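Re: beginner question about structure tokens

> Can someone show what the tokenized structure looks like for a real chain? I only ever see the sequence side.

Sure, here's an example I had lying around. Input first:
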Amino acid sequence: MDLTFVGIDPETTGGGSATVWVEEETADLVLQGKEANALLKEMIGEAE
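And the corresponding structure tokens:
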């Protein structure tokens, strides 16, 4: 799976996170550095 860099949060301090990548064939997003809150985790669970 090849990922394409989309961007990084310009408010990030320390050079660490929130970074976004996309797998272009499937349009899947990969988010690095942020943990989803409970509501988002629930919404993702319902979509799977």
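Each token stands for a local structural state, so reading them left to right follows the chain. The chain has a mean pLDDT of 80.
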